[in-house]
Amino acid sequence: MSRGECPAFPGFVDLQVNGFRGVDFADPDLTEERFAEACHGVLQGGVAAFLPTVITCPLDVCRRNLSLIARAMRRSDLEDRVLGVHLEGPFISREPGYVGAHDPEHVHFPAPSLLEEMQAWADGTIRLLTMAAELPGAVGLAHCARGLGIAVSVGHSHCTASDLARLAKVGATALTHLGNGVPADLPRHDNPIWAGLACDDLTAMIIADGHHLPEPVIRVILRVKGADRTVVVSDLCPIAGLPPGEHLCFGHRVVLEVSGRVSLPKRGCLAASGNTMLEGMNHLASLGILSEEDLLAVGFHSPLRLIGADPARIRGGTGVIFDRGAARFTLHG
Question: Could you tell me if residue 5 is inside a domain?
């Protein structure tokens, strides 16, 4: 180990991975083998464990893919590395801007009975639910999710501070990609970003890829929430790892830039990220905001705590080290 490096740790824990290298976890044609290939690609990039994310899609596709992922999780090469499923939707806002790259046609109002079905399809493996807080029935859905052992996060939501307070009271604990999943133009004061920052009960998940949030916003979130209530996610796009250019993704034509930025020109928004968790954590490290200890908190300890996972069960692959001199993480071994 060279001077300036700290000992290796297992790797990052990423709670939002939509796919990788052309494999979309919400694809109706997803196969177990393709799923495993994408998982191995993610895990070879400095990630010790993660949640595959299934976004808003037709219910028959959701049923099929949740069952497929649950089966694949039992493979010896994925056990304790694929920790469960992040269900992002379908209980989100269908309003333009708030819906993001999701298909509003397949958005549903909160329905506890449907969530119970989904958890059955997933054989109990859904660990995180992203939902909108302002929708009729949101409180009942959040209460149901907690009863099913699912952590609740608010996102793609046109919520107020009161909406967040109601959900936090029944067990919501997080905010999905705070600062994103909202329209480009918002009221100056009464908007979901300020409301999320002000709610001390909710941990902020953020995308630190250098595209989703400008540096001043990242600084403010970290100053308000602290490392113990901040979780870095990649929000990795299914086309991440492919050559730059136009691609079909989430049912839309999107543009992947050399920098990893993925845009959806038709809606004027970003469509997840082309940057890996390692790249996002290195961008965050380059800002000089957090100590080494705090970087490990937002990239490893805080995400595990959010979904109630035991750090002792996390077995890394290549592992990651932090080079103190360069202020960046590198793969170990």
Answer: no
241 contacts 21 by C-beta, under 8 angstroms: yes
Q: Which domain holds residue 46?
A: 12-331
Q: Which parts of the chain fold into alpha helices (H)? A: 32-43, 59-73, 112-121, 138-147, 161-169, 192-198, 215-225, 277-286, 292-296, 302-307
In-domain check, residue 3? no
Burial of 118 (0-12, 13-18, 19+ CB in 10 A): buried
Residue 165 maps to which CATH number?
Answer: 3.20.20.140
pLDDT tens-digit series, residues 228-278: 999 999 999 999 999 999 999 999 999 999 999 999 999 999 999 999 999
Enter the tokens of residue 108. Answer: 């549903």
Q: Give domain status of residue 326, yes or no.
A: yes
State the pTM of this model.
0.96
**281 found inside a domain:** yes
Contact 143, 129 (CB under 8 A): no
